[in-house]
């Protein structure tokens, strides 16, 4: 039985192997999967559908995949502006994160999931936090797909700085608690939620923790992720503490492999880029946080070359503390930042950037057999943009408009597993006004706990 048919779409970007773009397109969905894709007339010939969506004036894409987002950082918007990597982490974000209680975390996660969904994201990889159960529960309720992980650190004092007391645990505690999360949360909510391992960064992790987490990831058949090579400070700290750059250290530990996801990697050296390629390591670019915090990933980075060489490079919005959590806007930054620093308008064409936010994100999530393109047999995850808005006109090429002029604000409909989560710009699975009101109500107490009020107050007189 055809449960749902999307028909008469002006444009449909399949992102399939041939990268077909279909005009006057339709998609049939049966039992949560894509049953057929093609021209409206040929799809209608398959017989009647239970329900139809009229997609005239719309562009249909695979559900967008945000490959790196800190859901618990959503309440930190405005707390970490105009600071570099060291200050950002040790004076702003760790004190913020250390102050969050469970209720604060829930408000943050709900707000983040709402913003992701509104902006067309169907799958995301959470960067790892201390409340993966809440992340899983909210995503389960929202109807989306995600990967959760428990955050792991076992070095509390590094060359980068000292961690708050709330994060201090032994290597054994880190390993045991991370394993418990994978046991509890991997493949829950009809398989929509997966659980992975994570170490937050190289400089706050012992060799034993890194090797232990990779062994667990291999044993459970899941991924392991970490921030790596994202600023001059992380590279210099690694050299000072371990006598090797970050990816070289991981190579020595034998943990490079196709289930390893590296976040940023802009400061990777020539040798480290080779290691990424040779071991089929996955990478996520997050242009907005690098631009906002002056990490240098764009100026130093070689992601365009990695992409051309076939490395799976996804796209992540990273966190609200660098402003935007809007993947279409993130696409614009990823496409344009390299053009500017290299004085080369041809680098990072929009086709590559849409691949980052769809099929390559699916490869990063180790779920490309399941999502990332609109093809018969895959799960029915779709994002539908309303082009009857000024920023979409004139519409000569939807690939160009999606990357260069659209934002998440033009998302009209979001579908996951054939279920409609958002329609006509309205989220159906979460109570939007309640989440926004709860965040606004809770913000003053969170700010007070971080003791950052004076530092972040408006610089202009407030009366
Ligand atoms: Zn991050």
Describe the overall structure.
It is built from 18 helices and 19 strands. Strand 2 and strand 3 form a beta hairpin. The protein is globular. It has helices spanning 40-44, 85-99, 102-118, 132-142, 171-185, 207-220, 232-242, 246-253, 270-278, 287-293, 297-300, 303-308, 327-342, 350-356, 359-364, 398-404, 432-450, 453-456, and strands spanning 4-13, 21-30, 33-39, 51-54, 58-62, 64-69, 121-126, 145-149, 157-158, 161-162, 193-201, 224-228, 260-264, 282-285, 313-315, 382-386, 411-416, 419-423, 426-427. The chain is 39% helix and 22% strand. The chain is an alpha/beta fold. The longest helix has 19 residues, at 432-450. Helix 3 packs across helix 17 and helix 13 (327-342) packs across helix 14 (350-356). The chain folds into 2 domains: 4-62 and 378-427, Urease, subunit C, domain 1 (Roll), CATH 2.30.40.10; 64-364, TIM Barrel, CATH 3.20.20. It binds zinc ion. Zinc ion is lined by residues 68, 70, 127, 227, 263, 318.
Notable features of this structure?
single chain, 19 strands, 2 domains, binds zinc ion, TIM Barrel, Urease, subunit C, domain 1, 463 residues, globular, alpha/beta
Q: How much helicity do the residues have?
A: 25-40%
- Number of alpha- plus pi-helical segments: 18
Question: Which structural category do the helix and sheet elements fall into?
Answer: alpha/beta
Poorly predicted runs of 5 or more residues: none
Bound compounds: zinc ion
Overall mean pLDDT:
96
Largest sheet: 9 strands, mixed
E-strand count: 19
Assess the beta-strand content as a share of residues.
15-25%
Total domain units: 2
Q: Would you tell me which CATH topology of the largest domain applies?
A: TIM Barrel
CATH class category label of the largest domain? Alpha Beta
CATH architecture of the largest domain: Alpha-Beta Barrel
Straight-line N-to-C gap: 63 Å
CATH superfamily of the largest domain: Metal-dependent hydrolases
Shape: globular
Question: How large is the radius of gyration?
Answer: 21 Å
């Amino acid at each position: 039985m055809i449960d749902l048919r999307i028909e008469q779409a002006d444009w449909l970007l399949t992102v399939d192997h041939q990268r077909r773009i279909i005009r006057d397109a339709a998609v049939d969905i049966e039992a949560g999967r894509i049953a057929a894709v093609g021209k409206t007339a040929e799809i209608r010939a398959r017989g009647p559908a239970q329900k139809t969506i009229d997609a005239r004036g719309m562009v249909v894409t695979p559900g967008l995949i945000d490959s790196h987002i800190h859901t618990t950082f959503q309440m930190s918007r405005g707390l970490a502006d105009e600071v570099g990597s060291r200050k950002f982490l040790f004076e702003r974000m760790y004190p913020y994160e250390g102050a969050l209680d469970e209720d604060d975390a829930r408000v943050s996660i709900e707000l983040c999931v709402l913003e992701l969904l509104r902006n067309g994201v169907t799958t995301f990889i959470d960067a790892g936090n201390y409340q993966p159960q809440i992340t899983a529960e909210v995503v389960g309720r929202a109807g989306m797909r995600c990967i959760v992980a428990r955050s792991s650190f076992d070095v509390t004092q590094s060359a980068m700085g000292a961690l708050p007391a709330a994060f201090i645990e032994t290597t054994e505690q880190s390993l045991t608690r991370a394993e418990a999360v994978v046991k509890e949360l991997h493949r829950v909510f009809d398989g929509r939620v997966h659980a992975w391992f994570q170490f937050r960064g190289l400089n706050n992790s012992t060799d034993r923790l890194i090797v232990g987490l990779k062994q667990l990831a291999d044993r459970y058949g899941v991924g392991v992720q970490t921030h790596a090579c994202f600023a001059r400070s992380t590279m210099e700290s690694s050299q000072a503490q371990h006598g090797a750059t970050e990816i070289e250290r991981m190579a020595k530990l034998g943990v490079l492999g196709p289930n390893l996801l590296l976040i940023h990697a802009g400061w990777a050296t020539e040798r480290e880029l080779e290691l990424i390629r040779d071991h089929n390591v996955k990478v996520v670019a997050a242009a907005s946080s690098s631009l906002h915090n002056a990490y240098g990933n764009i100026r130093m980075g070689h992601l365009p070359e990695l992409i051309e060489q076939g490395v799976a490079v996804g796209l992540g919005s990273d966190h609200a503390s660098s402003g935007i959590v809007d993947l279409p806007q993130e696409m614009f930054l990823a496409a344009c930042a390299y053009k500017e620093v290299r004085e080369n308008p041809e680098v990072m064409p929009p086709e590559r950037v849409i691949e980052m936010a769809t099929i390559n994100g699916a490869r990063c999530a180790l779920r490309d057999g399941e999502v990332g393109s609109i093809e018969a047999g895959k799960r029915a995850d779709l994002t539908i943009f309303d082009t009857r808005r000024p920023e979409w006109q004139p519409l000569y090429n939807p690939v160009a408009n999606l990357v260069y002029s659209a934002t998440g604000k033009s998302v009209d409909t979001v579908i996951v597993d054939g279920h409609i989560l958002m329609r006509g710009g309205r989220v159906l699975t979460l109570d939007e006004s309640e989440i926004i009101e709860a965040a606004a109500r809770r913000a003053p107490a969170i700010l007070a706990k971080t003791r950052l009020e004076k530092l972040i107050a408006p610089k202009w007189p407030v009366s």
